Amino acid sequence: MFQHLTNNTNNLTNKNLTICNIVNNNINWFESKKISDQSELSKQYATICQQHKQQKKWVLFINPDEASLDELANTHGVDISKVLCVNVKSKHNGSKQEDSISLNIEQIKSVLCRGNCSAVILSNALFKQAEIVQLNNCAKKGETKCLLIKTIKAKENVKLH
Q: Could you tell me the pTM of the whole model?
């Protein structure tokens, strides 16, 4: 009888894991957002940290806006002990999008696949469509939310009539 109960428990556990895996497959692991001002960016950062704080994993910001990060603890009450920041120097090679950063895709894929972070936030980075597909696959594998944030300058929001 004891063995029978143990087998039932294992079956329940396996069924629960299968259900969790199915649910996890429906999560949107990669997301891209356009942000128009610093206040909106600060709120977005806070929302991300609040959504992922119960996972007790790192939230990694790559090339974050420093002022918006400062607001996390001061205004939004975010515990920054689980926030990591990495700043990558931009290489201006005469491109029109001088505020965009070209990041090493292999390093980001590695971080996403490992699953040590609950979320990775990439600010003003440029990726090709094929790279975005790779980032999505790696984020799904590591169950790590990947968010690409593009800050739009005021002049980009103005349309001429």
A: 0.72
